[in-house]
Structures are given as C-alpha cells and as structure tokens.
Amino acid sequence: MKLFTGLIFCSLVLGASGLLSFLGEAARGTWDMIRAYHDMREANYIGADKYFHARGNYDAAQRGPGAWAAKVISDGRENFQRFTDRGAADSRADQAANEWGRSGKDPNHFRPAGLPDKY
C-alpha cells in the first residue's frame, strides 16, 4: 500500500511540474508574440506586417508550448479582425504568415527590403 501511495504521489508531483513547465513556456511564447507586435508598431514600416506575423509565431514556436500560445493568439486576433476592420483576404494572408512562422520556416521570407536590421 505504501508503494502504491508513493507512486501516486510521485505521479502527481511530476504531472504538476510538467504542467508548470508547459504554462511557463506558453507564457514566454505569448511574450514573443507581444514583442513582435510592439516591434511592428515601432517600425511602422509599410509592407512589414507579414514579416512580424511570421517572426512572432516563429519565436514562440521555438519554445514548444509557445506554438500553442501563438496559434491561440493568432487565430483569435485574425478571427476578431476579420469581422471588424479588415477583409477576409488580408486575414488569410496574415494566417499564412502565422503558419509559416509556427512551422519553423524562416520568417525572413516575408522581410521587406529596407526594413532596419534592428528588427
């Protein structure tokens, strides 16, 4: 009985640490997305939108669970904007850039010529 109780206790501890690890990496992935958004606003560079979408998703996806956070944020944002201030075609193009970055492909594919190296 003591062995069984010990195994259950260890399973709970290991499960909780796994959940905490997942939540920590998801939070860092969320921060990657926020940083890309702030960089996009700061750059204020015409034609750079898709690059920053791809970069934020790429950075978040490098964290494992951050890819989950990136997908939730990207999908929610695009679904909201599709019905408010932009058309469906622009939203689909943003989602393509999001998926490109999340899949681990180089976000520089979308980088416009002349965008400062800072970004």
UniProtKB/TrEMBL annotation:
Keywords, ordered alphabetically: Acute phase, HDL, Signal
Signal peptide: 1-18
Composition skew (Basic and acidic residues), residue ranges: 84-93
A GO CC term assigned to this protein in UniProt: high-density lipoprotein particle
GO biological process: acute-phase response
Pfam families: SAA
Region (Disordered): 84-119
InterPro entries listed in its UniProt record: Serum_amyloid_A, Synovial_Prolif_Regulator
Family from the record: Belongs to the SAA family.
Purpose: Major acute phase reactant. Apolipoprotein of the HDL complex.
PANTHER family in the record: SERUM AMYLOID A, SERUM AMYLOID A PROTEIN
Name of the protein in its database record: Serum amyloid A protein
Species of origin: Equus asinus (Donkey)
